[in-house]
């Protein structure tokens, strides 16, 4: 049991399935009071019923006030987990780019805007962003996803450096492939890049709880991502040559 979580009021967005559902289950098992949000109302209700949580269907961008009411006035932990895996190139289209920004970045910004004043007032709060290794590296075949996940990582980093001395804790979870509906939707590029090392959603929850116990910002459910991130920073051109080889391999096999 993690002390910081027992009895805490926790919100998980996009928790009707995949990683969000695993986070919600784990928080509930650790004794937290959980709000399960998802755009898909049936999925939110089904997970909430299973774990004795409150279901809060709707867009993750605008649920903080309702979630706070459902938890009796205080949110202790907010997991900004909902995301869209928008693939494609520079030509993915205005609508797809805008949706990726809205869900993958602006939903985090809007939630923080609604959460931070109360957290600063009481000197505590925890913001968990489900980002992606694509936010540290880059996902072949998915420009909107890569760009917006870099944005989500940058925002989590900014929150952490700005408010850490005032009691707000931030975690950025950056997995590679995780066996969820989103991975299934990535098609041939996911099969090439993500599936061979994919892990279960429960492994992501384990990594987050370890990170909470160790008070770490960056949560890497695939530890090897630390080495890739270092390689990218140490020699960007060499790293790009390596990534371009993966791109070419995908082009040959798709
Ligand atoms: N699966 C992976 O390989 C992987 C890897 C790295 C990061 N991630 C990230 O993990 C998070 C969860 O993804 P997942 O793999 O569990 O996907 P998933 O598709 O299984 O689950 C995502 C859930 O979010 C919900 N959702 C989407 N937009 C929403 C919105 N605006 N408001 C509320 N709910 C919304 C969906 O209905 C769905 O139930 C995402 O942010 C994703 O980018 C996933």
TrEMBL record:
From the Swiss-Prot or TrEMBL record, give the protein name.
SDR family oxidoreductase
| Pfam families (UniProt xref) | adh_short (PF00106)
Q: Which InterPro entries match?
A: NAD(P)-bd_dom_sf, Sc_DH/Rdtase_CS, SDR_fam
- PROSITE patterns the UniProt entry points to: ADH_SHORT
- UniProt KW keywords: Oxidoreductase
Q: What organism does this protein naturally occur in?
A: Streptomyces mexicanus
Molecular function in Gene Ontology: oxidoreductase activity
The organism's taxonomy opens as: Bacteria, Bacillati, Actinomycetota, Actinomycetes, Kitasatosporales
Lineage top rank: taxon = Bacteria
Family classification:
Belongs to the short-chain dehydrogenases/reductases (SDR) family.
């Amino acid at each position: 049991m993690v002390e910081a979580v027992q009895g805490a009021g926790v919100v998980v967005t996009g928790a009707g399935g995949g990683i969000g559902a695993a986070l919600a289950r784990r928080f509930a098992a650790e004794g937290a009071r959980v709000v399960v949000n998802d755009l898909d109302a049936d999925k939110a209700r089904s997970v909430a019923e299973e774990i004795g949580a409150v279901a809060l269907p709707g867009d993750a961008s605008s649920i903080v006030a309702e979630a706070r009411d459902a938890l009796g006035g205080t949110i202790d932990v907010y997991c900004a987990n909902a995301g869209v895996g928008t693939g494609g190139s520079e030509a993915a289209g205005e609508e797809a780019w805008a949706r990726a920004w809205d869900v993958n970045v602006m939903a985090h910004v809007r939630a923080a805007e609604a959460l931070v004043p109360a957290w600063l007032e009481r000197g505590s709060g925890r913001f968990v962003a489900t980002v992606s290794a694509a936010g540290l590296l880059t996902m072949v075949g998915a420009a909107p996803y890569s760009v917006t996940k870099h944005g989500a990582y940058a925002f989590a980093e900014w929150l952490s450096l700005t408010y850490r001395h005032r009691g707000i804790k931030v975690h950025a979870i950056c997995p590679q492939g995780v066996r969820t509906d989103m991975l299934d939707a990535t098609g041939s590029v996911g099969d090439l890049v993500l599936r061979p090392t994919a892990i279960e959603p429960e492994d992501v929850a384990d990594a987050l709880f370890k990170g909470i116990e160790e008070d770490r910002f960056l949560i890497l459910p695939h530890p090897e991502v630390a080495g890739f991130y270092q390689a990218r920073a140490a020699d960007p051109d060499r790293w790009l040559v390596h990534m371009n080889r993966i791109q070419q391999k995908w082009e040959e096999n798709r």
